[in-house]
C-alpha cells in the first residue's frame, strides 16, 4: 500500500474521527496529525484531558507503524506529559526508531502551536503477517 492508501485506510478509525483528530501526513515509518482543542477536550481544571492528548499520539503511532502495509498492533506504550495545553491546535509527529520483522518502536512528540513540547509518547508494536489489504472493506 502507498501513503495515500494508508491515509484512506485510517479514515476508518472512527474513534479518532469522533475525537476530532485530523491525519495530515503519512510516509513509511512516519505520520503527522492534529487536534484542535475545544471544550469537549478539557478536563475538570480546564486543560486538555490526558486522554485527548493520548488519543492524538496513539493515532500517529498506529498510522506510522502500519505504514509499511503490514498489520501492526500496539503491545506497549508510555506517555509523559510535559506541559498543559488549554486551547489551540496540538500536532503529533511519529517517527520510527527501530523495526524488525516482529517488533517496531516509535517515538511521538506532541507539540502546541508555539512548538512547545506537550507530551512524549513511546510505543512498541507487534508486526503480524497479515497485510492491511486483507482488512479493507469489501466493495
UniProtKB/TrEMBL annotation:
Coiled coil: none annotated. It comes from the Bacteria. Keywords: Hydrolase. Residues 46-118 form the Thioesterase domain. One of its GO terms (molecular function) is acyl-CoA hydrolase activity. This is Thioesterase domain-containing protein. It comes from Thiocystis violascens (strain ATCC 17096 / DSM 198 / 6111). The lineage of its organism: Bacteria, Pseudomonadati, Pseudomonadota, Gammaproteobacteria, Chromatiales.
Amino acid at each position: 500500500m502507498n501513503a495515500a492508501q494508508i491515509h484512506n485506510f485510517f479514515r476508518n478509525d472512527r474513534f479518532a474521527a469522533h475525537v476530532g483528530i485530523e491525519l495530515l501526513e503519512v510516509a513509511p515509518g512516519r505520520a503527522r496529525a492534529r487536534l484542535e482543542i475545544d471544550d469537549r477536550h478539557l478536563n475538570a481544571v480546564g486543560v486538555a484531558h490526558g486522554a485527548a492528548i493520548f488519543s492524538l499520539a496513539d493515532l500517529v503511532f498506529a498510522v506510522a507503524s502500519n505504514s509499511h502495509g503490514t498489520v501492526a498492533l500496539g503491545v506497549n506504550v508510555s506517555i509523559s506529559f510535559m506541559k498543559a495545553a488549554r486551547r489551540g491546535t496540538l500536532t503529533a509527529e511519529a517517527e520510527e526508531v527501530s523495526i524488525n520483522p516482529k517488533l517496531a518502536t516509535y517515538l511521538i512528540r506532541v507539540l502546541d502551536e508555539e512548538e512547545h513540547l506537550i507530551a512524549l509518547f513511546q510505543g512498541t508494536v507487534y508486526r503480524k503477517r497479515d497485510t492491511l489489504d486483507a482488512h479493507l472493506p469489501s466493495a
